[in-house]
Specification:
Blueprint: H1 5-8, H2 17-31, H3 41-61, H4 64-76, H5 81-92
Helix pairs in contact: 2-3, 4-5
């Protein structure tokens, strides 16, 4: 199953663009590789992976078009076209 990018950023699925940006900046600052100098190699590797996951989530959700594509892809895995249409209209209102 695909990652839930909203959970990665600690947000609800109805988060606005500014909320996404704020959450990204907070988490990226916490896990950025340049700030991990004092960690041992295992902790540093885990933090770098977390940073990559946070960046991936932000890139998928920050742009309204890519966010819509992500949301639609989440619903198409259920093979229920009604959910895809619902997700499209629900998020086009935001």
């Amino acid at each position: 199953m695909a990652k839930n990018y909203f959970e990665v950023l600690g947000l609800s699925k109805d988060a606005k663009t500014r909320d996404i940006k704020t959450a990204y900046r907070k988490l990226a600052g916490k896990y950025h590789p340049d700030k991990l100098i004092n960690l041992d190699s295992d902790e540093q590797k885990k933090s770098e992976e977390k940073f990559k996951e946070i960046k991936e989530a932000y890139e998928a959700l920050d742009n309204p078009k890519s966010r819509q594509e992500y949301i639609e892809s989440q619903f198409t895995t259920t093979n229920d076209p009604r959910k895809v249409v619902h997700a499209f209209w629900e998020n086009s209102l935001n």
